Amino acid sequence: MNKLKYIIPALLVIFIFAACSGGDKTNSTNDSNKSTGTNDTTNTNEVLNVVTSFTLLEDIVKEIGGEKVKIHNLVPTGTDPHEYEPLPEDNIAATDADILFYNGLHLEGDDDSGWFSKLMDSANQDWDRAFELSKGVEPMYFNSDDGEYDEVNPHAFLDPVVGVIMAENARDALMEIDPDNASFYEENSEDYINALKEMDEQYAKKINDIPEENRIFITSERAYQYMADRYGLKEGFIWAIDTEENGSPDQITSLIKFIEENNPPVLFVETNVDKRPMETVSNETGIEIFGEVFSDEIGNPGEEGDTYVKFLQHNIDVIYEGLK
Question: What pTM was estimated for this model as a whole?
Answer without folding.
Answer: 0.83
